[in-house]
Write a structure and sequence with these properties.
The structure is a homotetramer. By secondary structure, chain A is of the alpha+beta class. Chain A has a domain of about 210 residues: Hypothetical protein af1432. In chain A, about 50% of the residues lie in helices and about 10% in strands. Chain A is globular.
């Protein structure tokens, strides 16, 4: 039967869904929700093209996984059909626990609950509904399956997740320095002793990939304006929670209000009603609420909301060393004077923090290169162009925000 | 002074904002709102990549206008700096009156108020704030300026609006058949007796453009699944208005509730409070409300909302002739039986209508070709490949929706 | 064993050679010769980028064939490994009989011997050297194999040859109107009763393909300047043959001289020494000789050679009807006066002929569309955008050349 | 007047020739010759797409120069029309002295005469014909014009020559790692005190450029197979010269024979007949001759020619240190045994040498960055991602060839 579903992707063209169970998972409400969550959160305030969603990303990563499976099989790596479906579902669902605005709100609406943890819980919930059809996918996702390379394709220095998001974020932001030759890298992958390796002739492509990643960090992921916007949104949600905790009313959709009016721990996420509410959250109610909060009586809240909505963002400065307390104090005083808020609310505007670009680690799960003579080497031993040590000692920078 | 602003665009690369007043207009809250309105509404349910915003489109069209002005000047068409700024602002602001989900909601939240009309009102409002600096732009936009080609660059068979949206919609949907060689077309434009013409050597490019447009109509703008989603959203808003008019409560942000609880005529838009509320609307509160309405007690509303949110859309059939009343009646009865709603609500699910693809008209403002011998010809007289008459007699198709 | 050869292609990226025998054929001197024959002959005088070779084209077409085989198998069309190799070799070798400057010289150096005929002879010669390993490939190439779709993939309205050359010629000329969504078309192919069909959802892609072809005809293949250059080269070779037949000496490489000093019929090509000489011809000796002939004492020859080498081409006019004899005579007289040649040599400069663009025929081997309901239709019955009848009645144009 | 010439380029699209004198220079036989010289010589034996010509490269570089002039003027750098034309002509003609197969034959046909030197002589010759209209172009080319940035646009670490060739070579080889964001770099150029600088916000783009260059060196310019082919061609020409000097006859076009049968010094190039002969050389007669020489009685010559024509290249090995004399001697003996040549001819097959990738020098004409605070810094002081010191200490590798 020839009933394959096809999805049009601006980057890869036609993406074919080869397996019925994969398509069934895409149809789930939990998955369709990812259509309403932007991959790069507020980055679109800096790069207006960055409107792409988590949905697009995971579909793309799933497509790359299919390509990788086909390529590995042509090199006589045995992958059973069950393993193929397992690794496809693992990559498809690995981000299902993301909340509104992706990374931005992991610490805004919830407190210290990672999206990976929620992904695990949601995968269990879906697995229960699907009579255990996700068992193998979950094993691979959690690295409990003996053939390690399947997990490495989902999560490692060179997994399908990264390959897709670097390519996709580069494409949509228009930052062409981040373009990666994905097809080539995938063609260069191989498996040795159940571990993922890169063939020697793929070294250049891997080096290009690492450089592209470095570029993306500084030009996109750690872009200072985008950092300022992210922190503003976190502070908006924090202030909204405070106001509600003081017993005042604030407009919000019921799903958002559920989370703003209470503090949930990681354990709470296991409760069906909490999880159900989480599955109804997406970018829309956060934006909708912030627009209404522009008119709040609370000066701090209304000021931050107006600034964010009209893209009149906090000014942000970057330095090589931490800002001293005198500098910080001066900014805090200035803010209070300027907009008339009490000193204890100054930190909603004067935000300090550090940025770290730690892209490649020469420790732990490093990249192995399969040499033509059959031996394995570390990437750092074979690299010709890229200086891995530059990645290994991460650059740390410090920032402070203030009102213009 | 070298303080030009630069915007990164995935399609054109760097876009430079050459004039301070143009940048000032981009900074306005009325304009920033366009960041939160998708260019193609619900089309992303069919083409997941179609997430691009009105903001991106008008910035892109403004960039093409800049290119066109430069190209025309190099052909010794005189364009003063005031005219340049005027035509840039006219294209930049021509879509500022769009409501949530672009075209989709023109008839959902308001009744028979065109976005062009609202654009005009908003341009006046901004002009007042800006001490009349938009006077010339408004004249060009409303075709009251004597040099007609400036208006034609904003609105005609071959304007910068269409060039950008065809290219951009093709890029983001991944429908490569719609790709247009914009740079070439712009290089082939010229002005004769203050009218916009295409030079003879550009005929191929124009023919390609018209074909691309035809492809985009059938593959994107009139895609049947997308039509179904659009109509569902219109019916959702219609039903919500009915419920509110019956005195029942329904969750909505204050801005959306303002419009759902009353019926405004075109004249009402002139009132400052109505206009102010309109300027606070965007896609987010519509989506946020629909998610909440999934739990409404009203079966019709909750059913439609669940279907739309989870992309379980109405089934749509297309035919060459209108559906007969027996067929329609059969579908209506089936729906009422299936979900248990009274007969008078059947039309919320059984929607009929027609689709028309009328892309080029050989009457009115036709495309003039400047021949090498100095004469002017109609495109229809010179075309070598494309059969314009195919466009001139529009294809009409009929549709009916039902529940699967 | 993992010893696959990879070729870098600017269009498709990495091309993998999957079978040893395919690689062996690429290594043959007969095949390597295609590296030295331009795909589009003198078209590079109009489009400087059109430097691509026959070698690149057939490697590309072979790659598309591999993709088509994989796609058809995924639709449960059975293709044995022998059939796969056969169809790959058939497409790889289908152009091996091309002479210098591809089509341009088929009638210049030889007289009325088609390149398809020489391809057949050369495939037989190679087959003999290879102990019959090309038997199946030759059967498929000559449409003697029962499963017709394999031949149709090599030669039909929608074969891998055309798909590659349209895409490639468009890419290298920079004529973007000719861009074709090859991947999509291939994904839409299927087989019914051993015939190649296109699935219904691929209609748009096929229509786009037919349009692109029409564009390429008028903008590239029948470009008037390129026609002028082609005819000049044919006349140069004709004149050189005449001069040699008169017993005068003329510089040429031994391989070229072999053909210039004698007239071979189709049957002669079967003789080993004739074939061997043919296999040593490529673009280089033709260009090298023409450069030397610029200094010939024969005015006609030297004039034509200087003009071609320095790209000072004959002027060419196009008309809807044939040029009358008075016009032609006037041009002939003018040429003789201008450069001082006898009247009987005037036609070396005053060349008349006709151009015909007959791209799609609704007779014979037409394109069949596999409808969703299982029926087969003619493309002309299902086409929505493209008017096939425009192709069916070919446009004929007439040309005349003269000296500027 | 609107008579601008337009050239289609696969990379940049339409290239407009803005000035009549520029077009006149393109029309010269000396310039048209560049259509017949491949930019990358024998690299097409490794990357079959690398068929592009010197003609395409200099037209492309001229186009980038036009873009740079426009961009700099928009930043209020004054460039007079004479200076514009001068710098356009300087880049257009800077490569006019290239011989067949570009760099490959600089040392094959001539001995130690650089193409820059011949470019200078040819520019003088053209200037004489053109009544001194190239005076300013020559001054700029030879860095004798006071406004240094004009020369720097033609020749420096970041000139239009390099920008075009890196982009073009990357495009045609299909080595996407070499892709450079040219438009961005050009937009980031500025002039301070008549010196070319890069604005601070362009640092990332420059770093990407330097990396891309490094990739191109190792993947293309120093590709070992390509090195082997180059050296084989040099040895073929060297052996042909030897044979002719021994009084034996050898087929060659008169232009090639002129150079093979004599040894010219740099001073000889000044003689009109030598220069005229040089202007008639291109790739075609070299290839045409080598094909004939396959049948030479000289075993060394015929063996090398057959190998090169049929792409059966010498085997090449790379090492970190020079090969010792025992290894070399062993290879020499083996070759003589294998093909039966005297020992003194062994070095035609056993070739040793070294490869050096010295891409950026921190000494001399370094890249200056214009910081936002108005100061100038060295690129090496500001670079965030790219480790310039990696370029500064060039990697040196050693090679040896032998017969398989």
């Amino acid at each position: 039967m020839n009933k394959k579903k096809i999805i049009n992707d601006p980057i890869y063209g036609f993406i074919t869904i080869e397996h019925e169970i994969v398509f069934d998972c895409i149809q789930l409400p939990e998955f369709q929700r990812l259509r309403r969550i932007k991959q790069l959160g507020l980055t679109s305030l800096v790069y207006p093209g960055a409107q792409h969603t988590r949905f697009q990303h995971v579909i793309g990563a799933m497509h790359l996984m299919q390509t990788a499976v086909t390529s590995l099989r042509s090199k006589e790596v045995t992958i059973s059909e069950d393993e193929e479906i397992g690794v496809l579902l693992a990559i498809l669902l690995h981000d299902i626990g993301h909340g509104p605005f992706s990374h931005s709100l992991e610490h805004g609406i919830l407190t210290d609950v990672s999206h990976e943890y929620i992904s695990s819980i949601l995968m269990e919930r879906i697995n229960a509904k699907m009579d255990g059809k996700l068992n193998l996918a979950i094993q691979i996702f959690e690295n409990k399956y003996p053939r390690k390379f399947l997990h490495q394709l989902v999560s490692s220095q060179l997994d399908m997740d990264r390959l897709d998001y670097l390519r996709r974020d580069s494409f949509y932001t228009g930052v062409s320095e981040g373009t990666v030759g994905i097809e080539r890298i995938i063609q260069m992958l191989n498996v040795k002793d159940d571990c993922l390796i890169v063939e020697q002739k793929g070294i250049f492509s891997v080096e290009k990939f690492l450089m592209a990643r470095r570029f993306m960090y500084w030009q996109v992921y750690l872009h200072k304006t985008s950092i300022a916007a992210d922190r503003m949104m976190l502070n908006i949600l924090k202030r909204a929670k405070e106001i509600i905790s003081e017993g005042k009313t604030l407009f919000a959709s019921p799903y958002l209000y559920f989370f703003l009016s209470r503090n949930f721990t990681q354990a709470d996420l296991q409760k069906p009603d909490v999880l159900e509410n989480f599955c109804n959250l997406d970018d829309s109610e956060v934006i909708s609420a912030i627009k209404v909060w522009q008119n709040s009586e609370d000066v701090t809240l209304s000021t931050l909301c107006k600034m964010l909505i009209n893209r009149n963002l906090l000014k942000i400065e970057i330095a090589e060393s931490p800002f001293d307390s005198a500098t910080i104090e001066k900014r805090r005083t200035a803010v209070c004077d300027q907009i008339g808020i009490p000193k204890e609310q100054a930190d909603y505007f004067v935000i300090t923090g550090k940025l770290s670009n730690n892209t490649y680690s020469t420790q732990g799960d490093t990249l192995k290169i399969g040499m033509k003579d059959g031996s394995l080497k570390e990437l750092s031993e074979t690299s010709e162009i890229y200086n891995l040590s530059d990645d290994n000692k991460p650059t740390i920078k410090y920032f402070i925000t203030s009102i213009k």
